[in-house]
Amino acid sequence: MKLSIIITALLITVFSFSSNAQSTPTPLSQVLSQYYDLKNALVGSDAATASKKAGEMLKTLNGIDAKSLSADDSKAFTAVQNKLSYDTRHISEVQDIAHQREHFAALSLNMYALAKAAKLSSQPVYEQYCPMKKSYWLSKDAAIQNPYFGSQMPDCGSVTDTIK
């Protein structure tokens, strides 16, 4: 009886430590989360929110010290950092949803390269494709929510890759 109580307490402690360790976001997981927020603003055709979310993402990107990342993550991040910053800066500076979506397409290609090479999430990352726009984006859900056409064609697209 005492042994089972001790084992139960030990398991609770281990699982509690494990879940707390995963709840601290890394700089790169924060970038992915902000990318998802930006994508969702474009899904809603909300240029003002897209601009704001891109500004937040740009601030995070510019604040990442690549030396603080693992060697592999640092190499992957530095390879696309300037491109990510360029597109998020452009999205943040304009209120024209069509222009934001153009830069989002380029941003998504570089986010995909980063997601393939670095550990951004413990959850799957879905690469999705819009055949009408001939462009990709990333999503945390397999369900399609098209950021290129918003409410005009919200479910146009398909999952082309799953990064685990």
**β content, as a range?**
5-15%
Order of helices and strands: HHHHHEEE
Helix fraction? Answer: 55-70%
* Spatial arrangement of strands, main beta sheet: 2-1-3
Query: Which stretches are poorly predicted, pLDDT < 50 over at least 5 residues?
Result: 3-22
Q: How large is the count of helical segments?
A: 5
Compute the CA-based radius of gyration: 18 Å
CATH architecture: Up-down Bundle
The overall pLDDT average reads 89
Major sheet size, sense and barrel closure: 3 strands, antiparallel
- The CATH C-level name is Mainly Alpha
SS-derived structural category: mainly alpha
Topology-level CATH name: Four Helix Bundle (Hemerythrin (Met), subunit A)
- Strand runs, count: 3
Description:
α2 runs antiparallel to α3, α3 runs antiparallel to α4 and α4 runs antiparallel to α5. This protein starts with a helix and ends with a strand. By secondary structure, the chain is mainly α. It is globular and about 45 Å long. It contains 5 helices and 3 strands. It has a 3-stranded antiparallel beta sheet with strand order 2-1-3. The N terminus is likely disordered. A hairpin with a 4-residue loop joins β1 and β2. It has a single domain, classed as Four Helix Bundle (Hemerythrin (Met), subunit A).
